[in-house]
User: What shape does this take?
Amino acid sequence: MIATPRLTLIPLTVDQVRLHIAGGTRLEDELGVRSGHREVAEPLLSIIKAFTIPFLQSPDRQPIYDTIWVALDRELNQFVADAKFKGAPDEEQTVEIGYGTYPAFQRRGYMTEIVGGLTAWALSQPGVDRVTAETALNNTASQAVLLNNQFMPFEQDEYVRWWEKRRP
Assistant: This one.
């Protein structure tokens, strides 16, 4: 778990990931959290089914980098967002993050806090010197999250901009 000023970021087990995508309030019930506005929408749902669950079942993988992390607002006692790493550090000691806030909780600064917490944690791990993320060129909200966390753009094409933050 990772604690930020308002949030606890919780890496889910494979069984908890299954509850996460099953719908309803089974994940909240399991973790003693107030039910609310948690949503697992496409394309995340397909990614979880095709990659996350099989990767979490593989003994050759590092589950902390393959699982879904849910963000719990401690005051509300509700989940407000999801984030994930897109696999273990590569040969360049880089991990990529992806993230999304549930619609009912957007525009409250949660994602800036989540990305900051995950990035600080990742850069403190052995074998991680860089965290990257990608955004659509028109996704100014996601770009603001990265800028607020001192990510710098390093490449782009006509649709996507890639960002990085390196270990100091």
